[in-house]
């Protein structure tokens, strides 16, 4: 493996000539690898190895780099239902006429300062977050930010500095964030309850049960399935055991699926509002008489 090919490989299979020059490779070295078939030219100033990631090849070939939600997925950050390929292009780029058949979503570069540049045709975390925040509806954008904080990918202070460079519409999103959220659907449920003035606490620890996703009032536990598919049998058994332990202690458990939060939220929130209206979320005198509440 030549030095040029090895460098491109370390960069993920795609590289700009500027990146290669920064690693000590001349344009002549790059041209030699292209001529002998070890690399292919994607567009002027960019090369790729055979078998390079298809999304990066498509983004670079279209004149940009993988960014926004597509880049965040590489960090296992919440990206909602959007599975399109998001591409950041220069602010005044001329977009190719065949962009639509390629199913690409283009983002013209925001004006950001002190953000790490793209590497190997994939945007840095800072660029990706900034574009994802301005690309999504608010609940999904906050869910992405929660995910970034929960995974420790960026500090709240760093996110604050980044969001301060965006239009005022997006600057208050950080005030809605909670790094305790363990999934995007949990964030969406929390924000959905907040929108109808139902207060809830995330990731509350209950003795004998463990941490629950959301607790409304004293005793209404809301557990949210963070995956789009059903959990395996071991996880289901563990959930049932936790639900039984919670019921033993007088808690009501409402377990919601991914689909219910994402597609049936009006129905879900109507159920929760009804339970709150009936006072089922608070301890009552009968619970105290039954010894469920410590006096």
UniProtKB/TrEMBL annotation:
<protein>
    <submittedName>
        <fullName>Endonuclease domain-containing protein</fullName>
    </submittedName>
</protein>
<keyword id="KW-0255">Endonuclease</keyword>
<dbReference type="InterPro" id="IPR007569">
    <property type="entry name" value="DUF559"/>
</dbReference>
<dbReference type="InterPro" id="IPR011335">
    <property type="entry name" value="Restrct_endonuc-II-like"/>
</dbReference>
<feature type="domain" description="DUF559">
    <location>
        <begin position="216"/>
        <end position="273"/>
    </location>
</feature>
<dbReference type="Pfam" id="PF04480">
    <property type="entry name" value="DUF559"/>
</dbReference>
<keyword id="KW-0378">Hydrolase</keyword>
<dbReference type="GO" id="GO:0004519">
    <property type="term" value="F:endonuclease activity"/>
</dbReference>
<keyword id="KW-0540">Nuclease</keyword>
């Amino acid at each position: 493996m030549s030095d040029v090919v090895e460098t491109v490989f370390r960069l993920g299979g795609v590289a700009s000539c500027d990146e290669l020059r920064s690693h000590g490779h001349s344009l002549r070295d790059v041209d030699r690898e292209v001529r002998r078939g070890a690399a292919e030219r994607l567009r002027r100033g960019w090369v790729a190895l055979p078998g390079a990631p298809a999304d990066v090849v498509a983004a670079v070939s279209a004149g940009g780099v993988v960014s926004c939600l597509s880049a965040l997925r590489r960090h296992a950050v919440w990206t909602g239902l959007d599975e399109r390929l998001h591409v950041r292009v220069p602010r005044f780029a001329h977009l190719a006429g065949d962009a639509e058949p390629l199913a690409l979503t283009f983002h013209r570069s925001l004006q950001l300062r002190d953000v790490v540049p793209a590497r190997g045709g994939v945007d840095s975390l800072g660029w990706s977050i900034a574009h994802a925040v301005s690309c999504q509806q608010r609940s999904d954008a906050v869910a992405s930010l929660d995910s970034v904080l929960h995974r420790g990918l960026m500090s709240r202070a760093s996110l604050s500095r980044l969001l301060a460079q965006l239009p005022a519409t997006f600057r208050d999103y950080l005030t809605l964030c909670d790094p305790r959220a363990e999934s995007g659907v949990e964030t969406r449920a929390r924000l959905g309850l907040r929108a109808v003035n139902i207060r809830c606490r995330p990731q509350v620890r209950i003795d004998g049960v463990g941490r629950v996703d959301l607790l409304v009032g004293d005793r209404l536990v809301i557990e949210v399935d963070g995956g789009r598919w059903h959990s395996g049998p071991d996880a289901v058994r563990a959930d049932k055991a936790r639900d039984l332990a919670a019921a033993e202690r007088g808690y009501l458990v409402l377990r919601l699926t991914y689909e219910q939060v994402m597609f049936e939220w009006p129905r879900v929130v109507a159920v929760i509002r009804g339970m709150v209206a009936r006072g089922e979320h608070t301890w009552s005198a009968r619970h105290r008489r039954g010894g469920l509440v410590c006096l």
